[in-house]
Automatic annotation (TrEMBL):
It holds the Pfam family TPR_16. Keywords: Signal, TPR repeat. InterPro entries: TPR-like_helical_dom_sf, TPR_rpt. Residues 1-23 form the signal peptide. TPR repeats lie at residues 172-205. This is Lipoprotein.
Length: 283
């Protein structure tokens, strides 16, 4: 009589062990799933920041096809295409993001930015018009300012630039854009001020340095501003100033500035040499 009892006990033990094993397997599977999610998240972060933009675009394109409902992957693809300067591909990528259930207002701002990069200003304006007025972010006002510039709505432009500047801790880029807006309107003094402020915020921003020289040159001020610059930058700024002088008919000054640029540059400055040779050939 003990044998059936023993057999039942053994079977129960086997079932219990099997049940424990199944639970352990499920736990392990869940653990690996959690690890995979963490690893994927970390990899996505890496791809969005330090990876080669085209490599990142390929990664997100592949993973987004495997998991088309994941908005973070679709968004990663769109951002990566922008970083890779593949703007015509970025527009439909951002359009897909904005049509998803979990889309955010800032995704529509990013779509407008991509549209501007492809030259579709009218569609970018329509895209921003769909945003609620309560969505007030740096990127929105930065793009609103650019759109106002394109429409020559200067009062709006200045207002949007001012708001955008107050919404970021790194305003150098938007200050440079604002300065360029002033430069295009012929307000050279104000442009000079804004470029100078951009450089104070970011001393490495060469675009603002070059624009500052253009603003000074437009006022026939052919002296370099007192700003941080290395030897190569100094030569390039002298070259910019020389071209500005020549454009305004101050050819002799332009030649002198070209010679100084050639002497200043740590290497052979081909652009300045060609410009100087062309001028001397004419005379």
């Amino acid at each position: 009589m003990r044998h059936p009892i023993l057999l039942s006990a053994c079977l129960a033990g086997v079932v219990l062990v099997a049940g424990c094993a199944q639970k352990q397997d499920d736990t392990v599977d869940r653990a690996f799933q959690d690890i995979n999610v963490v690893d994927e998240s970390n990899l996505s972060d890496v791809m969005l920041t330090v990876a080669d933009p085209n490599e990142a675009a390929n990664y997100f394109s592949r993973t987004a096809k495997e998991k088309p409902d994941r908005i973070d992957l679709q968004r990663g693809l769109a951002y990566s295409l922008i970083r890779a300067k593949r703007f015509s591909e970025a527009v439909p990528a951002w359009e897909r993001v904005t049509e998803m259930d979990d889309a955010l207002p800032e995704d529509r701002v990013a779509l407008a930015d991509a549209l501007i990069r492809t030259g579709d200003w009218a569609e970018a304006e329509k895209t921003l018009d769909k945003l609620p007025p309560t969505h007030e972010t740096f990127n929105r006002y930065r793009i609103e300012a650019m759109l106002a510039d394109s429409n020559e709505e200067w009062t709006k432009s200045d207002s949007f630039y001012e708001i955008a500047t107050g919404l970021t801790t790194k305003p150098s880029g938007v200050l440079n854009n604002w300065g360029y807006s002033k430069l295009s309107r012929g307000d050279y003094k104000e442009a000079e001020r804004l470029f100078g402020e951009a450089i104070r915020q970011d001393p490495s921003l060469f675009t603002a340095k070059n624009n500052l020289v253009l603003a000074r040159g437009a006022q026939r001020d052919y002296t370099l501003p007192v700003i941080p610059m290395d030897q190569s930058e100094r030569a390039q700024l002298l070259h910019t100033m020389a071209l500005s002088a020549i454009k305004q008919g101050d050819v002799s000054i332009g030649k002198d500035l070209l010679r100084e640029a050639i002497e200043t540059h740590p290497q052979h400055f081909d652009a300045a040499v060609r410009a100087l040779n062309a001028l001397e050939t004419k005379t």
